Amino acid sequence: MTHPESDTHPELPHVGRYERVLPVSLERMFENVLDWAHLPWVHASTFAGIRCEDYGAWGWRAEVVDPAGSKWTVELKLDRARRRWITRNLDGAYAGAQIWSQLSEVDDAAPSLRVAVDFYVPGIAAEQRARAGDAYRRLYQRLYDEDVDMMVQRQRQLELRIDSLGAASLCLGSRAELVLPVKATLAGREFVVADVDGQLRGYPARCPHLLGPLDAALPQNGQLTCPWHGFRFDLNTGECASAVGLRLHPLAVAEEDGDGQLWLRIEP
């Protein structure tokens, strides 16, 4: 793994710090730090696009675009042993800025981490530093508000997962009285039943990639897009239209019986 070059903070003006306790484990935190692909989806108000140039266990480097169209290159280096990562803006409008993030565990029964984020900006006048620090703190407040929900949801879904499914069926109630889409738990997993182009479809409520909330997305043109990473799935076949080897499984059968009751069924 490539380690940051120094244990000491850079010789740049320090404009502020943001601190927060997050209800997540180290595993979820490191997973989130290395997950460059979620930025324009979970943080759409900050990032309009991203093009990854390199990535690995060491971190990643990518060109990012903000909603105004400004582009710059970001490099993130993760040091697991020190529980730290350093984000550098290599070029563009924010060239030279560095963000140092440090984790420490909180003495608590539940998983929780304290993150301290220091902001360093080159060439900034002393009288402008407080204002810049406030802007960075507001930005990181918003980013972590969005990220913590993603990390907590993923952990909850990992704890609920089961290894196998048997044949199962569930009556959802009168079709005439149901307001679709509707969510139901069947054989230990959550499914969504929706009207997809005039046909009833049942599909998993979680994305097979990183268990993102497919139940938060609405079908469009027979497809469903994960709000965490943008993977698109064909709801007729379960196949992913934007990634090879990824598919929704199992799909569920939603059928109305002769009494007008809607049933959800999984077949092994």
Give me the secondary-structure topology.
Layout (H helix, E strand, L loop, with lengths): L13 E9 L3 H9 L4 H4 L6 E8 L2 E7 L5 E9 L4 E6 L8 E8 L7 E8 L8 H32 L7 E7 L7 E5 L2 E8 L2 E6 L18 E3 L6 E3 L18 E4 L4 E6 L2
Antiparallel strand pairs: 1-7, 2-3, 3-4, 4-5, 5-6, 6-7, 8-15, 9-10, 10-11, 12-13, 14-15
Describe this structure as you would to a colleague.
The structure is a single chain. The protein is α+β, with helices and mostly antiparallel strands and 268 residues long. The chain has two domains: 14-160, START domain (Alpha-D-Glucose-1,6-Bisphosphate, Chain A, domain 4), CATH 3.30.530.20; 168-266, Rieske [2Fe-2S] iron-sulphur domain (Rieske Iron-sulfur Protein). Helix content is 17%, strand content 36%. It is built from three helices and 15 strands. A seven-stranded antiparallel beta sheet has the order 1-7-6-5-4-3-2, with helices on one face. It has a three-stranded antiparallel beta sheet with strand order 8-15-14, with no helix packed on it. The chain has a three-stranded antiparallel beta sheet with strand order 9-10-11, with no helix packed on it. The radius of gyration is 22 Å and the shape is elongated. The mean pLDDT is 90.
